[in-house]
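Sequence design from tokenized structure. All designs in this work follow the same two-part layout: the structure record, then the generated sequence. An example of the structure record is given first.
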């Protein structure tokens, strides 16, 4: 954190808002366990910051996509149970066990690999059986789930912790395919084979959690929601949830440009009048989507200004017209400034991307830091009144 000045641009996480989101979701899901997937650098928010907040807030489970992310969590001192969702390779099994990660069995082949490895190492492992109810990604078909479950059940090296599936279309309420997947999952769950067994059944991602309460089962896995977003309307009981993510920078250069001048590569922006142009040190090399060239905005001094010309690898220009702004002043690319906001949802719409993609594209060149909640600010506010 002390090296934040190494890069003039940064991602800021409002941990108070993140905690508030967790509390609201926790209340909403009632008795169900709360699993927070923190894959892809916690949706760009920063794996360590988010995982430690989750641990402090006593989230029940974390989840990641791959072994590497699980190891990163363990190495940063996370003690919570962690599920690895992705289909692993044979050479990863030993480390999955060594780093105390629960992992996914998604086929008979994988089950056999693990059994052989466990016997060789004389170790046990904790697993979740993944059933594919219609996304056609990974997981066993419901018809073969019983066979694999029995196989796992017969071999004492397996501790079967959970059985789960994943939605193909749950971003919005009342989707018929989501309802079909719930039916398939229910049908499986009702099989006598599973009765009297302690199993965590889980299906719901963000949409499932927010819009399909019948899909909560024993555990929910909402990431996007926890970070403050839903794709449709926010249900009444989830009101108060808000993004906790900002992308900020500082003006690195200022100049006055004559009317009719072309700005940036290929001059795709021509000044309509003599204008003040500022340069912002963020580019597609940081993961800031180049498609925002000439159609995105930034906030400076609480006002929205257009991105002028093509976004370069490390910087882009903004036309502030006749207004004033100095080198070093704060610029908000995603987040709030004054009463204005530029949201990841809005950027996703403009660039035809998924908002998760807008956030996860922002890479490690940008340092992540926690927002400092200044008491000073509220004093200044009071003084103004
Ligand atoms: C990423 C992921 C989630 C979280 O989904 P969101 O809708 O983004 O919250 C849940 N479950 C699985 C299996 C995932 O891969």
């Amino acid at each position: 954190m002390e090296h934040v000045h190494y890069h003039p641009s940064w991602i800021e996480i409002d941990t108070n808002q993140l905690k508030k989101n967790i509390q609201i979701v926790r209340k909403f899901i009632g008795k169900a366990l709360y699993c927070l997937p923190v894959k892809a650098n916690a949706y760009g928010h920063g794996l360590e910051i988010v995982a430690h907040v989750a641990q402090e807030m006593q989230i029940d489970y974390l989840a990641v996509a791959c072994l590497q992310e699980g190891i990163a969590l363990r190495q940063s001192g996370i003690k919570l149970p962690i599920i690895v969702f992705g289909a692993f390779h044979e050479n990863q099994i030993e480390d999955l066990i060594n780093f105390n990660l629960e992992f996914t069995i998604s086929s008979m082949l994988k089950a056999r690999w693990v059994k052989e490895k466990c016997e060789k190492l004389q170790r046990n492992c904790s697993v979740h059986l993944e059933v594919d109810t219609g996304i056609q990604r990974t997981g066993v078909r419901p018809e073969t789930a019983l066979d694999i479950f029995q196989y796992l059940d017969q071999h004492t090296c397996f501790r079967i912790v959970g059985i789960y599936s994943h939605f193909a279309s749950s971003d919005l309420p009342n989707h018929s395919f989501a309802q079909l997947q719930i039916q398939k999952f229910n049908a499986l769950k009702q099989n006598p084979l599973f009765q009297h067994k302690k199993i965590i059944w889980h299906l719901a991602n963000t949409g499932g959690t927010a819009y399909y309460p019948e899909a909560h089962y024993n555990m929910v896995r909402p990431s996007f929601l926890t970070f403050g977003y839903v794709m449709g309307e926010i249900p009444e009981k989830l009101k108060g949830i808000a993004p906790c993510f900002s992308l900020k920078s500082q003006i690195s250069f200022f100049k006055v440009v004559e009317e009719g001048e072309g700005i940036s590569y290929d001059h795709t922006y021509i000044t309509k009048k003599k204008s003040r142009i500022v340069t912002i040190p963020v580019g597609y090399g940081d993961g800031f989507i180049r498609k925002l060239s000439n159609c995105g905005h930034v906030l400076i001094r609480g006002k929205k200004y257009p991105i002028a010309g093509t976004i370069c690898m490390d910087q882009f220009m903004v036309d502030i017209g006749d207004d004033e702004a100095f080198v070093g002043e704060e610029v908000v690319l995603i987040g709030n400034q004054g009463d204005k906001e530029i949201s990841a949802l809005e950027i996703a719409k403009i660039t035809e991307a998924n908002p998760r993609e807008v956030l996860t594209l922002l890479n490690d060149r940008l340092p992540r830091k926690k927002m400092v909640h200044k008491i000073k600010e509220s004093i200044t506010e009071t003084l103004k009144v």
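The first strand starts at residue 10 and ends at 13. We note this feature because it recurs in several other targets discussed in the main text.
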